[in-house]
Design a protein that fits this description.
It is built from 12 helices and 12 strands. By secondary structure, the chain is of the alpha+beta class. It has a 7-stranded antiparallel β-sheet, sandwiched between helices. Strands 4-6-5 form a 3-stranded antiparallel β-sheet. The protein is globular, with a radius of gyration of 20 Å. It starts with a strand and ends with a helix.
Length: 383
């Protein structure tokens, strides 16, 4: 694809710039940006391609796009800051601050369980509509009412979409403030352009997410409810985790004003690559966002094992994913971050002083891709 590339890049990282351009020329990238900070100094800030299907709107450094599960780390950070402040403990029962959550045998589930995907509610059982998706109270109440899919704390499964409503409601109950407002306040203090619920004044900066090739015109949509009939156990859990409500994973609603403006913290976080990198750069400043002790705990393995949602062995920290050989955040063992659907990623490497953000709009399967891996590999070859 003949795609414009703009921005700045320290000459030391020329190979990274070449790989970024190659993503468009050889790997099907449509629109994307990448930002690297090292020891608090921006050394790469590149944007390229197109923010719309028609290839009329160039991607800029301040273009916003849905970065999907990259946002899980940010909602977890809000909860962890409350732990640091002594307002809730990692091993406190969720029901201590959210009594309704104790329903259906979840009274022993803790904040730690919620943060590392062991709380037992990766999918909602009450049937929900997309109208419900725009109403925080309805979604939080559905989380509380759901019978757990396993005894909380005994196993894990990726809380693909419920993570934001689960952890977000804990944050709201403890602080009295929504995730949307808390993230906006925190992001403003570090100069990070990230949002859960894009302000109306900023929607003009949003790129279209493309779940299909630019030549196609029909986006993916959720299955009809009768298609779920007959499913049981883990199969039902997995399908409901993605499609109850039908648009929970953004299918059929992505790029709409409702989706961009909603508060779905695990899934509809929007930001720029610069914004993602700055959040991780702030985490690397000792004690700025979290105490060193809590950051070390949050970025260390907390739950390891097979995940029936992701269909593979997975290691979870407390909102952050520690680096693992299958999906590494570079070569250093203390690196941590989070991928998002289609390949968006934010991570920090304390040993190299690296904070990294990459966002894109053309969704390809899973998290690690040829595109983000090429950028990360080129970065570390230059260090």
């Amino acid at each position: 694809m003949d795609a414009p590339v703009s921005g700045t890049c320290d000459e030391r990282f020329g190979e990274l710039r070449e790989e970024f351009a190659r993503n468009f020329a050889e790997r099907g990238e449509v629109g994307a940006a990448v930002c690297v900070e090292i020891d608090g100094r921006t050394v790469v800030d590149l944007a390229g391609g197109w923010a719309d299907r028609e290839a009329r709107k160039p991607w800029r450094s301040d273009t916003l796009v849905d970065f999907y599960s990259v946002g899980k780390a940010f909602v977890a950070l809000l909860a962890l800051r409350l732990v640091d402040a002594g307002r809730i403990g990692l091993d406190d029962p969720i029901a201590k601050v959210w009594p309704e959550f104790a329903a259906e045998g979840k009274e022993a589930a803790t904040l730690r369980h919620a943060l590392c995907h062991r709380a037992g509610v990766p999918a909602l059982r009450p049937p929900l509509t997309n109208d419900d998706l725009w109403r925080w109270d309805v979604m939080a109440n559905a989380v509380a009412a759901t019978t757990p899919w396993w005894e909380p704390g005994t196993k894990h499964a990726y809380h693909t979409n419920t993570y934001g409503h689960l952890v977000g409601e804990i944050v709201r109950r403890v602080s009295g403030t929504s995730c949307r407002d808390q993230l906006a306040e925190l992001a403003a203090t570090v100069g990070a352009d990230v949002h859960v619920g894009v302000p109306r004044t900023e929607v003009r900066r949003c790129a279209d997410v493309l779940f299909v090739t630019p030549e196609e015109t029909t986006p993916a949509s959720a299955p009809e409810r009768d298609e779920l009939a007959g499913l049981v156990g883990d199969q039902l859990m997995e399908m409901l985790s993605y499609f109850n409500p039908p648009g929970y994973s953004s299918m059929g609603v992505v790029n709409t004003p409702e989706w961009r403006g909603a508060e779905v913290p695990s899934t509809n976080g929007h930001g720029s690559a610069v914004g993602v990198a700055r959040m991780y750069a702030a985490l690397l400043e000792q004690g700025r966002l979290l105490s060193p002790e809590l950051l070390e705990e949050a970025t260390s393995p907390q739950s390891v094992g097979y995940c029936p949602i992701l269909h593979e062995e997975v290691t979870f920290g407390l909102g952050f994913k520690p680096t693992v050989p299958r999906r590494p955040f570079g070569p250093n063992a203390r690196s941590f971050g989070h991928f998002g659907t289609g390949g968006a990623v934010g991570f920090a490497d304390p040993d190299a002083g690296v904070a990294f953000g990459y966002v894109m709009n053309h969704v390809i399967p899973r998290w690690q891709s040829t595109r983000n891996r090429a950028l990360m590999d080129a970065l570390y070859r230059a260090l």
